[in-house]
Amino acid sequence: MLSSLYYLVPVLGGYAATSFYLLKNPHILHKKKRLPFHCRHISHRGGAGERIENTLEAFDNAVSNHTHLLELDCQLTKDGQVVVSHDQNLLRQTGHDVNIRDVTYEELPPYKDSLEVTFLPGHMSMGRDHHMPLLEDVFQRFPEMPINVEIKEENGELIKKVSDLVKRYRRADRTIWASMSDQIMKKCQAENPDMPIMFTPRRGVILLLLYYSGLLPFVPLRESVVETYMPSIINRTYFPHNRLMRNPFLVTLQDKLFMRKGLFKHLQDRGIQVYLWVLNQDSDFQRAFDCGVTGIMTDFPSKLNDFLHRQEDKHRTPEETQHTVTGDGVEMCRY
């Protein structure tokens, strides 16, 4: 027994030291991914807390608030049109109990006058635009804007049509494949491998296992983006349908395991961006950035924009801020 330990201890010690060194220096084994965008401000469904979700008005509002990435969802209509909508069944969004796949694009009902914000229960969003746009409408309106396209159903025709639109508008490098399903993600990547992809939940669990086993620095990763919830918002602004996920002990455990600066730093050193959703409060913004995430997905683009500006102001030196006085005697700042 002692002779076995004599060999085992140095081996484990060497493994731990090597793993730690490579965790801090991933460039030794891995070529850094080079996405053409770096996103701190991400608008969930275009900013579902300030305008009706997934409408052109919402996307316009997000862009006017300096968002770096639009997040949206896609479905396919009966006549084969790729429409931007989170739900397949339209009861929540329109009050009509119909499925998008069962109606043509022209037959789609308009959104309700107001919608409850999914990640801030009790808060209603409103807007002038109640029309569900085509994905092509969004690509045409925002040709240079990075867009995160979530595929909601395992539908080969939908995946192909999204890919065809991405190719037509030459935006593969700035359009992210997103899905919660491994099967859907495999089909998306096979259809258009030039588009960056996110970690699915199952792959996220594997990522954590690799991190805590010390294997992560040795393993290549095909994904370019981590998109996941911040566990501490569960039972405050996010209420999962699965009751087990709402268990306070499991929420705390998830938070302890996932919110690790060392993990986020390693991923970003490998060019993998980390986005947390869906955060709608300043305290959550602050915690996420303090933990070293790349970006935050929010329903309130103007609120996150204001927060980021305040953070920038805190870090400005006196030389970077020039104070002037208006004719009314009000001190203004110019940058």
From TrEMBL:
GO annotation, cellular component aspect: endoplasmic reticulum membrane
Keywords per UniProt: Hydrolase, Lipid metabolism, Membrane, Transmembrane, Transmembrane helix
Family: Belongs to the glycerophosphoryl diester phosphodiesterase family.
UniProt superkingdom: Eukaryota
Regions that span the bilayer: 6-23, 204-221
Keyword Hydrolase on entry: yes
Protein name (database record): Glycerophosphodiester phosphodiesterase domain containing 3
GO molecular function term, any single one: phosphoric diester hydrolase activity
Catalysis: reaction(s): 1-O-(1Z-octadecenyl)-sn-glycero-3-phospho-N-hexadecanoyl-ethanolamine + H2O = 1-O-(1Z-octadecenyl)-sn-glycero-3-phosphate + N-hexadecanoylethanolamine + H(+); N-(5Z,8Z,11Z,14Z-eicosatetraenoyl)-1-(9Z-octadecenoyl)-sn-glycero-3-phosphoethanolamine + H2O = N-(5Z,8Z,11Z,14Z-eicosatetraenoyl)-ethanolamine + 1-(9Z-octadecenoyl)-sn-glycero-3-phosphate + H(+); N-hexadecanoyl-1-(9Z-octadecenoyl)-sn-glycero-3-phosphoethanolamine + H2O = N-hexadecanoylethanolamine + 1-(9Z-octadecenoyl)-sn-glycero-3-phosphate + H(+); 1-O-hexadecyl-sn-glycero-3-phosphocholine + H2O = 1-O-hexadecyl-sn-glycero-3-phosphate + choline + H(+)
Location of this chain's protein in the cell: Membrane
Stored Gene3D superfamilies: Phosphatidylinositol (PI) phosphodiesterase
PANTHER family linked to this entry: LYSOPHOSPHOLIPASE D GDPD3, PHOSPHATIDYLGLYCEROL PHOSPHOLIPASE C
GP-PDE domain span: 39-308
GO biological process: glycerophospholipid catabolic process
